[in-house]
Give the backbone structure.
Amino acid sequence: MGQLAETVKGMQERWPKAAELLAAAENDILAYMAFPPEHWTRIYSTTPLERLNREIKRRTDVVGVFPDEPSVIRLVHVG
């Protein structure tokens, strides 16, 4: 039994919905393993996503309340 399967089994009793979601996402979770092992440390990092989330928070904190959804998208659109 793999580590992911053990984690799902351990979560099943207390958090059945989360365990089901984790099991369903197995292919996505383990997709990095299709790359050469020397690339794994760069792929699994969430640093770029965390940086993006901080930038979105910084931009939205300035405004506070948005009049509509398109105004939010215009403000946080990166790139």
About this structure: DSSP finds six helices and no strands in the chain. The CA atoms of residues 21 and 76 lie 28 Å apart.
